[in-house]
Structures are given as C-alpha cells and as structure tokens.
Amino acid sequence: MIVLSDYLMVSGILLSIAVFGIFVNRRNMLILLMCIELLLLAVNTNFIAFSKFLNNMDGQIFVLFILTIAAAESAIGLAILVVMFRQRQTINVEEIDRLKG
Amino acid sequence: MSIEKIIFYVFAVSLIGAASGVVLVKNPVKAALCLVGAFFSAAGLWLMLEAQFLAITLVLVYVGAVMVLFLFIVMMLDIELKQLTEKFWQYFPAGFLIAALLILGFYIGLNTDKFAAILLGRSPLEAVQYSDVKLIGILLYSAYLYPFEIAGIILLTAIIAAISLTFRGHRLRKMVEANLQVSVKKQDRVRLIHLHSHQENR
Fold it and tell me: How far apart are the C-alpha atoms of A96 and A88, rounded to whole Å?
C-alpha cells in the first residue's frame, strides 16, 4: 500500500531537483522559468496528496488556483523575456545589470 | 508487490528522471520536452490520488498551452547556448550540496516517529463513490466563488500585460494608415517651383 510519505518523498525529491536546477542554470532565464514550474509542480503534488489522505477537497481547489497563477506568471515571464531579448540580444541573467549602481 | 505500487514507482521514477533532464540538458528545446514528460508523469500520480479533474487540467493547460508557449519562445529567440552553459560546473557543487541537504531533511522528517506518524503512515480512507469534478464544482462556485473571480481577473491582467509588453506598434509595418491618407492636403504633397525655360548667365 502506498502511504502519504511516499508521495511526500517524491515531491520532496522533485523540489530538490528544481532548486538544484536553479543553482546550476542560473544564467539561462528560460531554464530558470522551467525550474519554477517544477517547484510549483512539487508543491501541487503535496497539496493533492494531503487532500486525498485527509479526505478534504480544499487542497484540490488550492491546486486549481496555483495552476491559474502559475500560468499567468509564466506568460508574463516569457513576455518579459522576449522584450529583454529584443533590447539586449541575450537571455543571460548575469548580463542584466543595467540598473546596477 | 502490488500493481498499485508498480504503477506508482513507474510514474515516480519517470517524473524524477524527466525533472533531472530539465535541469541537466543543455538544449532548451530538449529541456522543454523533458518538462512535458514530467508534467505527464505528475498527471499520472495525480490520477492515482483520485484527482482526475486536476490531472486532466494539468495535461490540457500545461502540456497543451504553457509548454507550447515555452517551445515557441525557445524557437523564436536565437540563443547562444555556449555562453549560457559556461559556468555549469562552477555552481554544480553548491547546488548539489543544497539539494542533497534538502533531500536528507525531507527523508529524516518523513521517517521520524515524532512528526505526525499516524498521518504519514496512513493509507487513504476507503473511498466513497463520488465525483471529483462535481465536488470541485460545488466548492468552486459556492465557498470559493470570490477567489475564483479574482483568479479570472488575474488571468485577464496576465493577457493584457503580455500583449502590452510585446506589442511593438505599427512602426515596422508597411500598413496604410487610412486617416492620414484621407486627411492629406494638396499643399502637403504638391510643391510648385518656378523653372526658367532658358538658361541665364551664359
């Protein structure tokens, strides 16, 4: 039988991989956005697992809202990425230092 | 080993493998495709948790819309990959250390007796016959009606923000501007100059 801690461990590993990805790919903004999607996926899996094991539907509603906000976030993030690429011809995060004093 | 366990481990391993692919692959197109695989595996896990509506939503909205958006952007931009993956190994140790500490922390936390051991080791309650979509719908349109409307407003804001950020106006188009065309006067276009019919100063 699969217990709650199995699901929690899977999403914990997923979250760790996403954090690792944010560290190693810190120059490529596209991969950074993808890693944020992975983080949210791990959190959503946690929510759904708790919702199932506590017999409470509120967790699933929360996941629905997180999905909405994540979709909006990635749309705006990609729009900002496109504008940045037009201005600087790069998506390297380390070169975005125009506001640096 | 029961069939349920086998399915769970298949989905879990493919989810973690695809997620590792996202962070380790150099090519952004391949990373986006790995992310699609990760979403599919996660949808499988969610199906096992009897969240059918959300699993289908994940596949439709994420794989169908958001990941296509990512692929569009990746293919639209002409990215220099070499420069972006230069310092991969420089940040590798720190990232690995933090990820390993996180996993260790989760493992210890989930295997301790002190933290809600009753809950963590519990198998799911015996399922009553119910419809997941129906329950979500009832909750969404009653108790969560106000957040639901706010979510709609946030999506509208995202649309407006994305369009207004990337819209470049008409300056690069060879479009005919009708209002300028009809309001033009004769003085704007026709210039009368006086030319002599014979050459002077010979």
Answer: 8
